[in-house]
Amino acid sequence: MSEILVIGSVALDTVATPAGRFNDVLGGSATYFSISASFFSRVNLVATVGKDFPDEYKALINAFGVDLRGLETKAGKTFRWEGSYVDDLNCAKTINTQLNVFADFKPKIPAEYKDSKYIFLANIDPDLQLFILKNFRGQQLVGCDSMNYWIQNKNASLKKLMKEVSFVFLNDAEARLFSGESNIIKAGMFLLSLGPRFAIIKRGEYGAILFTKQGISLLTPAFLLETVCDPTGAGDTFAGGFMGMLARAGKVNDQAVRQALLYGSVMASFTVEDFSVNRFLKLKKRDIESRYKKFKDLTIP
Amino acid sequence: MSEILVIGSVALDTVATPAGRFNDVLGGSATYFSISASFFSRVNLVATVGKDFPDEYKALINAFGVDLRGLETKAGKTFRWEGSYVDDLNCAKTINTQLNVFADFKPKIPAEYKDSKYIFLANIDPDLQLFILKNFRGQQLVGCDSMNYWIQNKNASLKKLMKEVSFVFLNDAEARLFSGESNIIKAGMFLLSLGPRFAIIKRGEYGAILFTKQGISLLTPAFLLETVCDPTGAGDTFAGGFMGMLARAGKVNDQAVRQALLYGSVMASFTVEDFSVNRFLKLKKRDIESRYKKFKDLTIP
To answer: What share of chain B is helix, strand, coil (3-state, %, to 5)?
Structure first.
């Protein structure tokens, strides 16, 4: 089984949604990504937490088989994010961000991780994302995420990063901002013009679009749910299912990537059903296959 | 070939979009619906216009084979709508509405139309929609559209209408308002609880959802375009393609309805490519089949 390396955040989240409020629950891009990908592949995680990070949360991530030798514990407090979906389940309102030890995150890649075949650079400073890639000889398949802040404040670095990645994951607003194009097809093709082989534009509850140099390769709705509890981490969970499925497939052709997109959607549909990563605690591989089949049935006329 | 009867508006629209501005062009729900459906079925139209309605526009609709014996010309001016998509291509801002002869529209159904097998009640006062159905013996398959105004101001009549129709077409905001449910699955199931056999929730550039009593039957994205010129009439064009395809299929089972939904999406994707109904002037049946095939390729993993 191939290995995936993810570099990102492990955080303590305080989240309010119409379904309730939870304080200091396990969160972070690398957390959601790694747990999601763990259902398909071995996963190595690089992140940093503070001394206050509960051992039980480490044990929780580790119980999914995620390798935590790259999780550094530093003096200080863990990255904390507080957000609310009370007004709009589709869009988090950030109430408070405390970077804490994450503020001077300098990812150290353990020697054992340098053979990972797939790398996911979660949303961090693109200069750090570029710095990470210097550890590798360019044989890996790299995916990356980013956000409006870096598009606006580190535009040149982000464009440089685009030359180094095979997959870029952005949501529609980010893709529009980065490209300066309001039309989503033009935005997707702009991303590819910067270097990646595949661009994945995430549209939240409306699904996702996969672009290749030939144009749109797959246009898929999201798996709809009667109850959405907590959308936090849906994008990273999506990327985790996508990269995990690709690693499991062991090849990167259009068909494998299209299928990976559906698995990403399926994994995202699970995580929003409960707070934090709780839904994964009781998720079985057969639940994934069953929802994948249902999803295909609903989307094929 | 089965016949479809549509009752709605024939209008003169003034539309501003990022692509330009057009004054007093042909518009109206019955216009878009009938031209779209004409590619699949014979269509009978009931509407009213004023003395100022250009003969060339009548000839234009008639050139698609649409029967205009139900188009009444009355003293006064034609219904005029002025809208702008300059700020948001997904949402029309109404600048001005002049109902004119449409204000006291009392649909008269020509005797020749009473054998129509399919009826589409475009968005008008639900009391009028109910009144129209009194002309028929209940053997027809009826579809209807509505809007926020009637949901708020004629709620009881609209609910009564729901008992008489097989298909209800609403957009997501309308379905949420009518049901009082923010969740779209719950909104769809609410619509079906009122009587229709199928509910179709339109999501604009994000596609459409088909509901049956068993839940979601088909979840489809919209066919994306690099250039959207004028979204006016997309919903009625969608319904026209849908009902037209059903009439052509001559049966109403889940499979036929799922396929009709895709044809509705395809027809809507054409109309937004040009102002007014201009795109249809050069549309060939083979263009429809070609886009239908492309749409299926893009949505099937």
So the answer is: 40, 25, 35
The answer to whether B206 contacts A218, with C-beta atoms less than 8 Å apart, is no
Of A221, A179, A180, A226, which Cα lies nearest the Cα of A199?
Answer: A179
A207, B226: Cβ pair inside 8 Å? no
Mean pLDDT of A146-150: 96
Alpha-carbon distance A186 to nearest alpha carbon in chain B (angstroms): 7
Cβ within 8 Å of residue A41, ≥6 positions away:
A1, A2, A3, A4, A118, A243, A244, A247, A248
Residue of A nearest to B221 (CA): A221
The answer to whether the CB atoms of A221 and B227 lie below 8 A apart is: no
Is any Cβ of chain B less than 8 angstroms from the Cβ of A203?
yes
Which residues on A lie below 8 Å from B224 (Cβ)? 184-185, 209, 216, 219
Which among A186, A207, A224 has CB closest to B221? A207
ipTM of the complex as predicted: 0.91
> Is A1's pLDDT higher than 70?
no
Beta strands in chain A (DSSP E): 3-7, 11-17, 20-27, 42-50, 67-74, 80-84, 93-98, 118-121, 141-145, 167-171, 198-202, 208-212, 215-220
> What one-letter code names the amino acid at B42?
R
Q: What are phi and psi of A217, to 5 degrees?
A: -100, -35
Query: For the segment A187-198, what is each residue's pLDDT rounded down to a tens digit?
Result: 999 999 999 999
| b/e burial code for range B108-125 (CB count within 10 A of at least 16 → b) | ebeeebeebbbbbbbbbb
Domains parsed from chain B with CATH numbers: 3-299 (3.40.1190.20)
pLDDT at residue B88, as a whole number? 84
Cα torsion for B270, B274, B280, B283, to the nearest 10°? -60
> So what's the pLDDT on residue B197?
97
Minimum distance, in Å, between the CA of residue B199 and any CA atom of chain A: 15
Å from B43 to nearest chain A CA?
A: 26
Render pLDDT for B160-181 as a digit per residue (tens, 0 to 9).
999 999 999 999 999 999 999 9
Q: Is A137 exposed, middle or buried (0-12, 13-18, 19+ CB in 10 A)?
A: exposed
Give yes or no for a contact between B79 and B9, defined as CB atoms under 8 angstroms apart: yes
Measured distance CA(B227)–CA(B277) in Å, rounded: 16
Residue A148: its H or E element: helix A148-153
Q: Is B61 on the interface with A (CB under 8 A)?
A: no
* Residues 6+ away with beta carbon under 8 Å from A82: A13, A14, A15, A94, A95, A96, A97
Tens digits of per-residue pLDDT, B176-218? Answer: 999 999 999 999 999 999 999 999 999 999 999 999 999 999 9
**B105-141 tens-digit pLDDT:** 999 999 999 999 999 999 999 999 999 999 998 888 9
Q: B136 in helix, strand or coil?
A: coil
Instruction: Supply the pTM of this predicted model.
Output: 0.94
Contact state of A183 with B209 under an 8 Å Cβ cutoff: no
